[in-house]
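name: query_chain
kind: protein
chains: 1
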Amino acid sequence: MKKLELRKLIKEEIQKLNETGEMNKYDIQKGGEYYEWAKEIEKDIKKIQRATKGILKFKKMEPYDKYQGPYAVVTINGKIDNIWSMEYEDLFIEDLKLLGSWQLLSKALMGDPKALKITKKK
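structure:
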């Protein structure tokens, strides 16, 4: 297969993904359609990482879809978890079911009982 044919095939496949709302890794890389969204999540996660002195550790960003956006893969006390962006600049820690700003989530992860009560979702 010639390079030109291969590029055309790849472009067609990417277009099919975009039509269904799916994201691919190129969408969250520099120059990608959702790069800024992914970078904003990553920045907030790194703020939590610093505030919790490494209880939470950022691993990587992953694409999902154009509706729910990209998500961060992290470890919390050594266990893998995912963090999603939500409305109003809130973040949602999937397995722990915590929802709030990076500041509130940092406090909750450090064991602040008031922050835990505010951020915990059922």
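note: The mean pLDDT is 89.
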